[in-house]
Amino acid sequence: SPDPSPSPKRTPGPCPNPPLAGPAAPAGAEGRCGARRPGGATMPASGDTKAKAKPEAERYQPKAPFLSGALAGGLEISLTFPLEFIKTEQQLRAAAAADGRSQAGMVDIARATVRRFGPQGLYRGLPPWLFFAFPRSAVRFSVFEHSLAGATALGLGSAADPRLTAACGFLSGAVEAASVMTPMQNVQIKLMHDAHRPAAERRYPRFFASLWQIPRDLGVVEGLFAGMVPTVVKGAVNSMIRFSIYERAKESVARALGADGDSTAVHMLSGAMAGGVSAYVTHPIDTVKAQMMSLHGGSYGSSLECFLSVYRGGGVAALYCGITPRVIRVCMEVALQFALFEKISRIIDGFF
Question: Is residue 274 within 8 Å of residue 306, measured between CB atoms?
Answer without folding.
Answer: no
